[in-house]
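Predict structure. Chain length: 354.
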Amino acid sequence: MDFILHVPVIGLLLQFIGYLVGVMTTNGSLIITLSTPIALGALCGFMNERSGVVNIGIEGMMLFAAFVGWYVAALVNGGAPTSPGPLGITFPLLVGLLAAIVAGVAVSALHAWLSITVRANQIISGTIINIEALAITGYLNLLISQNPIPSAGNFQSFHVPQGVASVPVLGWLLTTFLGHGPITLTMLVLVIVLQILLFRSRWGLRTRAAGEHPRAAETLGIDVIRLRYRNVLLGGVLAGLAGAWFTLEYIGTFQGGMTNGRGFIALAALIFGRWTPIGAFGAALVFGIADALGQAVSFNPPSGDLGAVLSGVPEQVFSALPYLVTIIVLAGVVGRSIPPAADGQPYEREAKAT
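Prediction complete.
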């Protein structure tokens, strides 16, 4: 069978598949880590769009929450530094996490008001949020950098006991899915909970009704306006968690534009996942794999003919892999993935008869 590996195209393809499998098995925990902000952003979009509100401002919500969470945590840490507990949890980090969530909800409230009450164009509303968040956080970060304040640190990953981690298969699974910080672990729980609630709860039924046929839902006694407001605000909680992941769990500090398009990739994951939590998480994993693959090729390139071929590819191509995958995915699912029927359509109650 070795001769197949020397057939130009087939050989390179098989080598690439083998290398990809190796990256996935040895970097499983990293893949889930890199998928976390995308999955949380997709869940934010899910909460919005399943109830009929388009939200392309996830990127801005995440970025604003990331800045607020980091800055508040740093301020609290300067006044009351504490020793870390399990998972690196400290009082400043918890306050920063809460501040990030509040920031995400606040920006979501603005989007809800513009989209639901004012009935403004929802695409324009999201675009404004993205532009303003990038400008405001960039400006404030520039001011703070002139008198820098020490970071409050970041949450730490859970360490699976060595005896359990060494068990074949089971150890790998536990390490891959449990070896993370509290925000990533929360994301994994939320994916399962929201998937169940969507199809097995009154809230899920009402949410789907509001997103598919709001007027019919209203005739059955569902307050569509209130439901949409509630879901958009809950989506802000998820966007806040996604932003907090960047500064309070992954890096521990803030950098201008650090979300780096993850909010837009989250929208692609939502579409690719057909507007379901499990599907969105699976799509987020695809982008996480692409990101991990790009890092692996840069730091640990494959050997043999595949390595020789990839060595001639500019390094920037590997850094752009998640975005290239986004384009490919969207090109493949456009027209096949059908959104909720009332998605993006402002709803206005009929006037009551007198």
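Summary: The domain at 2-333 is CATH 1.10.3470 (ABC transporter involved in vitamin B12 uptake, BtuC).
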